[in-house]
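Hi all, posting the design record for the shared folder.

TITLE: backbone redesign
STEP: 1 of 1
STRUCTURE INPUT:
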């Protein structure tokens, strides 16, 4: 297994034209950043002259971005599902068709290209919500974690960190209907067998953590949820769950259990600071109180939520209730955390008919520190001494950012404006290009192998 990027020996020095440092409402100018062994060792502001041994980062330099919620294989659907109407549920049929054609080799190629696209967008860590465990007929591969291993290798070769969120997926509906068709490859039979398989996967690379996920209350019966919770708790790893993405899920849960999905998770002990609720779109006030009071995080995925017509979630009320908010690109209709961050604010404006719900610093934190924390990397997502040396530089002279002050770049820049990316001190993107992969060609080849002509 190879890892993308190169690390310069000894201490490396970078001189940022502007850099967004912890606790600052706006970026600082002329910042000298020193690092060694993959960590920041010195941060000095107000250094007007670029030292001879420092690499100049022209533009705005940010901490590494964290993509808290990803389904890597969904990248193959981009541009292929907008030709008809329907809903999330009709889109899901097309997603299942792609899922049915993947194997460990083709998934490695697709995930590697997708994660490399993330690197180009300034993403230094991804949370992969992984439920594509077995062969298309549901039978285990000789290595029961072959698909997990493919994702971990893909992240290493793309040059980013990964939290593999091994997902428990047991039933097709809230009332316990069995998995059929493409869903067969998602299931392990029961939570005990899921835990045995997930627990047997122990990668040793320093770019990976293995956490857990409850796919949803429709996919994990109530009496099985505590097994997944305990598995994550015993390991001190994150726990994620799709929550109230669709009204139909809420209605089915209320009809069968007499509780909302949030209430069901609360009763099963699944809420808490190590848990992240993904989407959290259709919540009651009582749901928000349960989530916030327990310190449960919320991962919002605005570009996917609008692409799938999921609805607009209560971002500001969640934060005000006590939920840390992070961001994900989910189905990868777009891989651009600047757009996700703007989407959080824009959706609040549409929901409330009022502007100004989040400051740029709050949105940046959602895209960086909060996301890394939700994935278990509490030593990343900030430019500070001792933190992991992730840097993302955004140009301020493109057609999108020209004339925009550094403090306003989050409102104007896109993934295409990222010029340089370091992950754990390794150069992964330089001058807008991935240092080891031809990303467009890799995506074209990988997608062509798994979609119908």
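Okay, here is what came back for every position:
SEQUENCE:
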């Amino acid at each position: 297994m190879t890892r993308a990027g190169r690390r310069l020996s000894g201490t490396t020095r970078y001189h940022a034209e502007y850099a967004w440092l912890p606790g600052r409402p706006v970026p600082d100018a002329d910042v000298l950043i020193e690092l060694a062994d993959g960590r920041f060792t010195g941060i000095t502001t107000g250094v007007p002259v670029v030292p001879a041994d420092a690499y100049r980062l022209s533009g705005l330099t940010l901490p590494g971005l964290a993509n808290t919620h990803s389904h890597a294989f969904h990248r193959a659907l981009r541009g292929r599902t907008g030709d008809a109407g329907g809903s999330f549920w009709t889109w899901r049929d097309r997603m299942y068709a792609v899922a049915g054609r993947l194997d460990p080799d083709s998934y490695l190629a697709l995930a590697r290209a997708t994660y490399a696209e993330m690197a180009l967008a300034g993403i230094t860590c991804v949370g992969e919500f992984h439920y594509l465990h077995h062969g298309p007929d549901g039978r285990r591969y000789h290595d029961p974690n072959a698909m997990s291993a493919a994702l971990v290798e893909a992240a290493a070769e793309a040059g980013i960190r990964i939290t593999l969120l091994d997902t428990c997926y047991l039933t097709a509906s809230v009332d316990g209907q069995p998995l059929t068709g493409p869903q067969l490859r998602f299931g392990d039979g029961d939570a005990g067998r899921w835990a045995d398989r997930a627990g047997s996967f122990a990668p040793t690379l320093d770019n990976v953590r293995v956490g857990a996920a409850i796919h949803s209350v429709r996919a994990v019966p109530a009496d099985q949820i505590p097994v997944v919770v305990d598995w994550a708790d015993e390991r001190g790893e994150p726990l994620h769950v799709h929550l109230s993405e669709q009204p139909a899920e809420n209605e089915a849960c209320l009809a069968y259990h007499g509780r909302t999905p949030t209430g069901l998770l609360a009763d099963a002990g699944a809420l808490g600071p190590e848990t992240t609720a993904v989407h959290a779109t259709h919540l009651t006030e009582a749901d928000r109180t349960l989530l916030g009071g327990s310190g449960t995080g919320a991962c919002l995925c605005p570009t996917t939520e609008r692409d799938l017509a999921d609805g607009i979630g209560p971002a500001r009320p969640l934060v005000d209730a006590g939920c840390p908010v992070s961001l994900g690109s989910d189905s990868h209709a777009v891989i651009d955390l600047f757009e996700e961050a703007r989407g959080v604010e824009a959706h609040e404006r549409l929901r409330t008919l009022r502007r100004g719900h989040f400051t740029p610093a709050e949105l940046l934190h959602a895209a960086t520190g909060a996301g890394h924390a939700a994935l278990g990397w509490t030593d990343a997502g900030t430019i500070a001494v001792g933190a992991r040396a992730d840097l993302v530089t955004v140009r301020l002279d493109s057609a999108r950012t020209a004339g925009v002050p550094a403090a306003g770049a989050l409102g104007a820049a896109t993934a295409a404006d990222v010029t340089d990316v370091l992950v754990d001190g390794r150069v992964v993107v330089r001058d807008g290009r991935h240092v080891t992969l031809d990303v467009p060609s890799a995506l074209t080849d990988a997608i062509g192998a798994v979609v119908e002509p």
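COMMENT: DSSP finds 14 helices and 16 strands in the chain.
Let me know if anyone wants the other runs.
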